[in-house]
Design a protein that fits this description.
The structure is a single chain. This protein is of the alpha+beta class. A four-stranded antiparallel sheet has the order 2-3-1-4. A hairpin with a 2-residue loop joins strand 7 and strand 8.
Length: 740
């Protein structure tokens, strides 16, 4: 199948390349319009959670009481007080259009709050609060963008805080982060590709396919927005992922194409065989990555589910682009793939099994004592993951922004300089089952809520039909352990007889998100593991190899999780990485890293085991085949990992902290997997399994021989064991080779 695809695209190379160029131009014009097509907002919340259900009730006649936007004023003249600049601020606030605004409160229009609460302790700052008519974050941003300039006052500096401003600022930073990441990564990628291939022509091919896929990802995402709501926060992850995977896949194919040419194949044969072998690896790797992302649909939050839909589509596009455009480009390039050589000295390619190579010797070293080696390496990985035991999970909030962002500055200023922080509001909805709740009982219940640690006040503020609203003010940081305990105690407080209660607000939303992810993550992991197991069985016809692969991939993830807790929650390396630790880790982080890193781990596993299988089928020696397979793939796997680190390292430069967490986590996971796991732990465990690594029960072995995804022969042209080579080996029909 893959050989036929390579042959077809090479034969029709003119039309394939023309279609790719036209599509790329279209993507640059129409696809980049995706930035204005996101209608799903951030979408971090679980629609079925208690906090979201409370928000739905508050959207009705009962009404919300929240401060969606907080506008902070301070004179540009040092030391000047509100008494001096207040008239300019009041005039500005009076001129703000009221369309889309349910309430605008300030020192001059205090609403239900004491006037003094709007002015800082030193009298030099003041704030105004806005509640929008809609609680949808994207709709709030649309209104904010229309009226933002109307808040300006002469001689006064203005900063915007609150959830609406935070969302607006995250959206703005997202686009600039992508541009900066690509500006930094593309030149580095080109240099690394030149160093890897020692040829400028060969280096340009993966970059060309990667650029095609990255731009095409915008088209894929824009099409998806026509059918479903996509979170505005997915664009960073998806575009960088598409670029990274396409370069990885192109690296495999170009490397195999050069091997075939160097072994004596003609250009057409080299294209066909590269697509049949490396292309098969790309297809299975793409399936593994797509499966990992498909697991995100287990999560009800729009952020995670839309990330799943978008990532599966983009991964599929990366595979299709790599298996169609690249073979056509290779056919055009031919032997010129080695032109414009860079004279760096040393070896520039593998000419066959290298029994003196560094990775060959290392593999034999760990396989001489496989039990000790396995236990030692597993102990190291578990030790790296140990810090995860003390993790404190958070949800995205203003903490994700850089320290100079308005929303973050406003939040810090309100907490430090004002007696009342208007952002620290929660709401309890009291719902009567068949009759309105008794007002006296609601008041008494509010008194009980006010006694909970961290709550400063709890006041009934509205009664409508069978519902009542209690507004609570609190002091703990919404992402702290104290806030988590506060939410637990509030929800554990018995409600009035005949009623049920719903609590909402940032601390409650954080508790609900963390609970949802904790409940669904094991199911996602089980789904990904089971389906990956099946895909790997289809690739190799073994029952034990897929199980081993899943376990080893989870170990590399564990090491990444522990490192992230150590770095971001505990604050180590914060100066080097440029962030302010908040004593917590975003709860979405493990989900995304499981999805991305697990798929990438399967990517490298398929590539490595495909080569090990080639050697196994030729020799039947379980130890030597592993050593040779590791040696023949180590350079390309480490190169692919390094290139991917450069791409996903773009996340590390992000201004948005939870994107930085994802970048650091992926870099650690990829490096650990490509070196410690693939180079050391895989050989040790393969030596433990021996010939049983390729075992399957006889009925499954026969079924796989008939229906498994296998293309033969798979060894480079002219090598022993390949038709056309000096010694033709028999084709195997069983996962176990004949005795030798």
């Amino acid at each position: 199948m893959f050989a036929a695809l390579g042959k077809f695209t090479a034969r029709r190379r003119k039309w394939v390349v023309v279609a790719a160029v036209v599509f790329t131009v279209f993507a640059g014009v129409w696809g980049t319009g995706v930035f204005g097509s996101f209608t799903g907002g951030a979408g971090f919340d679980d629609p079925a959670s208690e906090s979201v259900q409370a928000d739905k009730v508050l959207d009705g006649p009962l009404g919300r009481e929240s401060n969606d936007l907080i506008v902070l004023y301070e004179s540009k003249t040092e030391g000047e007080t509100v008494a001096a600049f207040g008239d300019a601020v009041r005039a500005a606030l009076d001129g703000v259009p009221r369309e889309g605004i349910a309430r605008l409160d300030s020192y001059w229009h205090p609403g239900g709050q004491d006037r003094s609460a709007y002015v800082s302790r030193d009298g030099q700052q003041a704030y105004a609060t806005v509640q929008f008519t809609s609680d949808d974050d994207q709709k709030q941003v649309e209104v904010l963008e229309k009226i933002k300039s109307d808040f300006a006052a002469d001689g006064v500096s203005v900063r915007y805080g609150g959830v609406a401003a935070m969302t607006d600022q995250v959206n703005t930073l997202t686009g600039s982060d992508i541009a900066r990441a690509e500006t930094l990564s593309v030149p580095v990628l080109l240099i690394l590709l030149v160093l890897i291939f020692r040829s400028a022509i060969a280096a340009l091919l993966p970059l060309a396919v990667g650029s095609f896929v990255a731009l095409g990802s915008f088209v894929v995402l824009r099409v998806l927005t026509m059918f479903t709501e996509i979170s505005s926060t997915v664009i960073n992850v998806i575009t960088i992922l598409g670029l990274g995977l396409a370069i990885d896949y192109a690296l495999f194919l170009v490397n195999r194409f050069r091997e075939e040419l160097h072994a004596g194949a003609d250009i057409d044969t080299a294209v066909e065989r590269a697509t049949a072998t490396a292309g098969r690896t790309v297809a299975f790797s793409g399936i593994a990555v797509a499966i990992s992302f498909a697991g995100l649909v287990f999560f009800p939050s729009r952020f995670l589910s839309s990330m799943g839909y978008a990532a599966v589509a983009v991964v599929a596009f990366a595979v299709v682009g790599s298996l169609t455009l690249l073979p056509a480009l290779l056919r055009y390039t031919g032997h010129s793939v080695d032109k414009w050589r860079i004279p760096l000295g040393g070896r520039d390619r593998a000419t066959g099994p290298e029994r003196e190579g560094r990775w060959y010797r290392t593999a034999h070293a760990v396989m001489r004592k496989p039990v000790l080696s396995s236990l030692a390496i597993v102990a190291v990985l578990v030790g790296l993951g140990a810090p995860l035991l003390g993790v404190n999970w958070a949800r995205p909030g203003e903490w994700v922004l850089p320290s100079n962002a308005d929303a973050k500055v406003v939040g810090k200023t309100l907490a430090a300089d004002f007696t009342t922080n208007p952002a620290q509001i929660m709401t309890t909805v009291v719902r009567g089952s068949s009759a309105p709740p008794d007002r006296a009982e609601v008041t008494a219940y509010a008194g009980e809520l006010a006694r909970v640690d961290g709550v400063t006040s709890a006041t009934p503020t509205a009664f409508e039909g069978n519902d009542a609203r209690i507004t609570l003010r609190y002091t703990p940081d919404a992402m702290s352990d104290a806030a988590r305990s506060m939410v637990h105690d509030l929800r554990a407080t018995p409600p009035p007889a005949g009623t049920k209660t719903l609590l909402t607000g940032m601390p409650a939303s954080r508790a609900d998100i963390v609970g949802m992810i904790g409940e669904r993550l094991p199911w996602m992991a089980l789904f990904v593991a089971v389906v990956s197991f099946f895909v790997l069985f289809m690739a190799f016809g073994s029952l034990l190899l897929p199980l081993k692969s899943v376990i080893l991939s989870l170990l590399s993830l564990l090491a990444a999780f522990g490192a992230i807790k150590w770095i971001f929650q505990d604050g180590h390396l914060s100066g080097l990485l440029g962030f302010e630790p908040i004593g917590a880790v975003d709860a979405n982080f493990p989900v995304l890293v499981v999805a991305i890193a697990f798929g990438l781990a399967m990517d490298y596993e398929v590539f490595l085991l495909s080569r090990v299988r080639e050697e196994w089928e030729a020799s039947g020696d379980p130890v030597e085949s592993v050593a040779l397979g590791v040696q023949r793939t180590a350079r390309i796997i480490t190169s692919a990992a390094l290139l991917l680190v450069v791409v996903v390292g773009g996340f590390m430069t992000s201004s948005i902290l939870f994107m930085k967490m994802i970048g650091v986590g992926l870099v650690i996971a990829v490096l650990v997997d490509a070196t410690i796991v693939r180079g050391l732990l895989v050989p040790a465990t393969m030596a433990l399994l021996g010939k049983w690594a390729w075992w399957a029960p006889a009925p499954l072995a026969r079924w796989w021989s008939a229906y498994g995804f296998r293309e033969t022969p798979e060894r480079p042209y002219g090598e022993v064991g390949v038709p056309g080579g000096p010694d033709v080996a028999g084709t195997l029909t069983s996962p176990l080779p004949p005795a030798r």
